[in-house]
Amino acid sequence: xxxxxxxxxxxxxxxxxxxxxxxxxxxxxxxxxxxxxxxxxxxxxxxxxxxxxxxxxxxxxxx
Length: 63
Hints:
By secondary structure, the chain is mainly α. The chain has one domain. Helices cover 81% and strands 0% of the residues. It has 3 helices and no strands. The longest helix is centred in the C-terminal third of the chain and has 25 residues, at 35-59. Keywords: Membrane, Transmembrane, Transmembrane helix.
């Protein structure tokens, strides 16, 4: 489930950067279609979620 979400998120971020003219279109196409970058973003999303879970457990919040 994280893979498709990370790909969608990556395409929105890259689209925003192209609209703002921060990166050229050909670089954006490479980034948006690179499975390694999508996997790295998926890993980052999973790490953030697990970090918040650990924080909630440590502070006694509902999980």
